[in-house]
Amino acid sequence: MAEKEEKSEEKKIEAFRSPRGVHDILPMDHEYHTFIKKVIRHRARQAGFRRISTPIFEATDVFKRSIGDTSDIVSKEMYTFEDRKGRSLTLKPEGTAGVVRAFIQHGMQELPQPVLLYYIEPHFRYDRPQKGRYRQFWQFGFEVIGESDPALDAQIIQLASKINEDLGISGILSLQLNTIGTPEARKEYMGILQDYYAGKERSLCDSCKVRLDKNPLRLLDCKEEDCVILAQLAPVMRDYLDKESVEYHEELVGYLDEIGIEYTENPKLIRGLDYYTKTVFEFWDKDNGSQNAIGGGGRYDGLLELMGGQPTPAVGYAAGIERIIANMKRERIRVPSKDTLHVFVAQLGNEAKKKCLGLIDRLRDSGLKTMGALGKGSINVQLRLADKFKVPYTVLIGITEVREGTAIIRDMEIGIQETLDMEDVPERLVELIGEENLDKYSPGELLYS
Ligand code: HAM
């Protein structure tokens, strides 16, 4: 008995699960990903952006220097490791730093300015896993590098709004807008903030106690309850900003009014990354506020120089695809599914199976999404399978059909069958499915040399 128990114990191997905070993108969710990527690529191309992919990991300093030591991302959310030669590397927690590194490394300042780049990539943050917060998540982003003008900031916001509209979620989002001025103006304000917090340190969370010294601006962005209350009563940055930044902001707001984009002026919005200057903005879920912003961005005029490049102004935006999908689902927004099959091919016998392989290939080349049951089940088992796949038509080839060079097409909804020459099957099915519903694919015709 004991031996038996031991044996069954031996057999029980625990199945693996994905690491905490990361998730599989299953086929149902890929339909959303595919649709969203299509929208992004379309809108990006229309506006002259070109796609860039930077490596999944970079030298750790790329992020430390750009995002800032006191930010949550750098201080507690990076996946940092040493390679075999002891070099410190980090999985990218965001896209801007890598794009700027690439811009400088590849001499893109020689290109006509501004350079318009976009990306759709996975990113990694050791965030506390919860709804809308993952440790691997997909972000798409746009960067406009090489020019400073409020009209460019307006255009980036317009592009982001357009994408939200295309995805059917613009109605549930509010655009939060602020300017955080130049670094010099901010310095003065930071001193004022430090004075305000003096004597209140005991009410701050541990992170904020540390940040108060190094970068008191971060305290305005903290999500801990007591810190939020203190931040609400803090002096407002706008009152200490330089004239140029204020005028820049007024001009931007004028453009947004002109193109009919609604916004909420939010003087407390500072964003969680250190590289911003002047314009900052976020799209908030109207119900959940800042907790789960679907996207955010702003101007970063000092970053290129900070990263070793020539002084070059820039502005950009990035959004989280998982959060967008969650909002689309909440709003019951469906996306077109291109995965539905047109035809199922069932067969009986070895000879029929051989014929099927060629037929399936021809059906697919005709633009018909076709699946073949090439296993060993009976015709009835195969038909039940066809039902489960919800195909409108099944092609049946048995011993008689092989001998006579024919095939049967069965309409799965009404159960009517017709027999025809095997050669004529693709054409007949194209007619039944309709040219407009085909999945035509002929990459060979697109290639040129
Ligand atoms: P960010 O606000 O840190 O900005 O991230 C942009 C978006 O990425 C967020 O609004 C959110 O939708 C998504 N996101 C961030 N962390 C997570 C997470 N743990 N799980 C799921 N989604 C997440 C940036 O990254 C800047 N690089 C944006 C930018 C581009 N600024 C200028 N250019």
Overview of this protein structure:
With 449 residues, the protein is α+β, with helices and mostly antiparallel strands. It folds into two domains: 27-182 and 242-330, Bira Bifunctional Protein, Domain 2 (BirA Bifunctional Protein, domain 2), CATH 3.30.930; 343-448, Rossmann fold (3-Layer(aba) Sandwich). 40% of the residues lie in helices and 19% in strands. It has helices at residues 2-11, 27-46, 60-67, 72-76, 96-105, 150-166, 183-197, 206-214, 225-233, 243-258, 303-306, 321-330, 350-365, 379-388, 399-404, 425-433, 443-446; strands at 50-51, 57-59, 80-82, 88-91, 115-124, 136-145, 173-179, 264-265, 279-285, 295-299, 314-320, 343-347, 370-372, 393-397, 406-411, 417-421. Strands 1-5-6-11-10-9-7-8 form an eight-stranded mixed sheet, sandwiched between helices. The longest helix has 20 residues, at 27-46. The N and C termini lie far apart (74 Å). The model has no long low-confidence stretch (mean pLDDT 93). The protein binds histidyl-adenosine monophosphate (HAM).
